Amino acid sequence: MLLQLLALLLLGGGLAWWSERWHNNAPRWAALAVLLLALLLFAASISQLPLQAFSIIPAADQPESWLLHYRQEWIPRFGIRFELAMDGLSLILVLLTLGLGIIAVLSSWSEINKRQGFFHANLLWSLAGVTGVFLALDLFLFFLFWEVMLVPMYLLIAIWGHERRAYAAMKFFIFTQFSGLLMLFAIVVLVQVNHASGAALSFSYFDLLGTVMEPAMATWVMLGFFIAFTVKLPGFPFHTWLPDAHTQAPTAGSVILAGILLKTGAYGLLRFAIPLFPQASMDFAPIAMSLGAVGVVYGAVLAFGQSDFKRLVAYSSVSHMGFVLLGLYAWNVMAVQGAVMQMVAHGISTAALFMIAGALQQRLHTRDMDQMGGLWENMPRMGACAMFFALASLGLPGLGNFIAEFLVLVGLFQVSPVLTAVAALGLITAAVYSLSMMQRAFQGKADLQRDLQDFDRRELCAMAVMIVALIWLGIYPQPVLDMAQPVIESLLPGVGP
Amino acid sequence: MSSGLTLQGLQGLAPILVLSSGAVVLMLQVSVKRNLQLSYLVTLISLLLAAFSTGFALEPGEQQVTPLLAADKYAAFFSLLFCLGGAVTAMVSRDYLAQRRGQNEEYFLLLLLSTLGAVILAYANHVASVLLGLELLGVALYALIAYPDRAALPLEAAIKYLVLSGAASCIFLFGSGLLYTVLGALDFSGMRAAAQALPVERSIIVSVGAAMVIVGLGFKLSVFPFHMWTPDVYEGAPAPVSGFLAAVSKSAVFAVVLRWWLEAGLYEQERLVMSVGLLAAASMLFGNLLALRQENVKRMLAYSSIAHVGYLLLVLVAIGVSPDRAFAVEAACFYLVAYASTTLAAFTLLGLLSQRAGDSDQYRDNDYDHDQLQQMNGLFWTQPGLALLFSVALLSLAGIPLTVGFVGKFYLFTLGVDASLWGLLSVMVLGSAIGIYYYLRVIYTMTLAADRSSRGPQLVSLPGRLLFYTLIGAMLYLGVLPDTLMTYLGTIL
Fold this sequence. Notes:
The structure holds 2 protein chains of 2 kinds. Chain A is built from 20 helices and 2 strands. Chain A has helices at residues 2-18, 26-47, 88-107, 116-135, 139-148, 150-160, 165-196, 205-208, 215-232, 241-248, 251-276, 278-304, 309-330, 333-364, 375-378, 380-393, 400-415, 417-442, 457-475, 478-491, and strands at 68-75, 80-86. Chain A has 2 domains: 1-49 and 65-204; 277-497, no CATH class. Chain B has helices spanning 7-12, 14-32, 36-57, 73-98, 105-123, 127-145, 152-183, 188-197, 203-221, 229-236, 239-263, 270-291, 297-321, 325-353, 379-382, 384-398, 404-418, 422-447, 462-480, 483-490; strands at 63-65, 69-71. In chain B, helix 2 (14-32) runs antiparallel to helix 5 (105-123), helix 14 packs antiparallel against helix 19 and helix 17 (404-418) packs parallel to helix 19 (462-480).
């Protein structure tokens, strides 16, 4: 089932490319159909699972206790297996991936007019890579998907991006590739250490969990993972690729980058970096949390200083992802729940903001907010949507992002009240930059000469889905929390604060 | 081990015999009737037969044939690799030459001879046979490089290669002479035995001699401080020849270095291992740095090949440190397969692209190949198949997963971690990260909008298309399902 899902996305990419010969618009429909089919397939197979399966704590040594598990020998020479498994956490993230994938296709419906076939192929392939990252539990396979999602993303930015796309795409690729190599290095060392201690050569997560290492070695290897994931997250000192990549990418690219790709970093920390090296991670936690707190404030301050709409949203991502880093390294149930919630809520709210930015760029041919103003009068529907997501982003109670940040702060308080105070500043600064963004772009004196097309039905549909999702997450977050609960409980006992 | 020549012994040398007879037949054919198509067929058939005969050669088991040549699995494997490499080069060259004026039949003769030289190197375990193979490979290559004899660049390249390669051979010979004076043996295993019995105070001469041998061979491998000829020769030579030079000639030299290193016990010399480590690090770093600013794709590939040789040298260092030699050889062989197939694919593309360059009005002395980065503009949209091949090849060189290059790099990582070569591995990570830039730059250029001067879709002949689909297939197959090859390579030593 997991295999079919990946195959469907990969082959769907090929189909979308091929369908261009048939009709110019066929790739869009093909991509949409493939994603809907994937979502249906996924939902159908989930609904077949017994209800109590969701409350079982997935044990590391029993792959059967996971929701779905698939294993196949692949390269026995190195003990590498094709191993996919899904627990509640993966389930949430795969759902997010497929959902935002559909949004991404919708958001670029009228934006991309050249080489649609190849565009949608790359879109689907990068989604396949991300899905693979969320499902792979063999470290070699995980690394493979980690890299595979990069190449199509690179092409998306490099071919369909804006003015400085070559620079941005290259920077994005080199940052992630370099850190990826560090991770590969770390993976190989980890496997060798495990092998040297007498275990069979294996890249399986289940076998590597609980590898005993010398503390110094463990710290170095853990850093390999940490850097790779923090670059992707992006955490504070490694975030510089993000504003460029997000700003230059086409709308669908930004939606996927911000909505999903960043979450692979958070997922990697939660799934691999911390559980594989519990002690080293906990020793490192104060530094990681400080980086997170700095990221929250620094990202927010920079966001406030931007006049480019997309850049502002990009820096706000740095700020929001700081909360994820804080939540993960606070390492208690409450904070980790908050981090997971933030992954979902931020994915949706930022994707929506990028979609709005893309729509603005398409209509105004600029992202510069100094040239906007008064757009609410020109496009009331878009203005209302933007208002909603700006409020979500600043953490208005009742919406998903509030629940997430609140949980992180509550969890964090038990560990470090000082950092909690710093991070809480992020909520205030978020209000400042979000509202100033609304003010500069949508309020003020309208230029009524402008003849602007308001959101049409397709765009409104996409927005409505995301609005409903955020409200639901804000008012009744329990299903997501329940889904993640057993996973977090299975990961936490490694260390105990 | 008998050193007399028996029928079994001859069977062991089957690939060498097939290639030699092929060369004779081809020579006769050219003297009777000149026909490019016929010469091509004779060459291709000899190369494929030789490739096929590597299995047959192993039937009597591993044996030493004359004191010069060892017919073992190692030799058979590399012979197969070189013959296939030669066959790919022949196929690319056919279309490439058909469009060019002049009498081109001898080109194939030279190609056969230099492949023969490479195969002899695969078999060699004696200094004399090493020299024989090196010179056969080299002399034929000088002529191949200068084959477009009306253009200036190939002549310059050939002379450069001739002079520097000659100097390198001298250093190599001097080193061998030094080794002989103290060791009194020229066969690899004899050298090892003599070196172990040697009193300590004289072992310095062994180190010096071995260092000179490594320097001489390092020239041919284009290891960092001895790399100056590489970019000029790659740029000047016709694209198929550059591919052959990069893939087959370098792999052959590396194969013999590796055998020498192992059988003569050079890895026991700590000073030598150390200096090879330094050369490796320098090659990785400078190869990648110098490739950054190249505007010519062939020059870029030349510098990248310097970096790749640096990665490969890591194997020699690892052998010196870690006891698991079979694994090191396995890693080296896999990496060579990866590197050879990828490089051949890249130059195949350049060859196919340049097919029509020779006959057009734009023919100029210095521009007979389409190898400027600019000329790749928009290739994705005018020639999607070719562009895809080139992208896969570049990603494989960069070591991105799903391609064979990644598995090769993964091997080296594992080997390096096994041997705890932290310094070299760090340089390798750094070098690979730098490398991404220039590989991606080519891919990016291919995605740009096609400029006005590009001539629209060029037709690539059916064999050409089949060839590059096969190459893509091979690179992806070995990248996704490498286990068969791995298992086979594990049994080589």
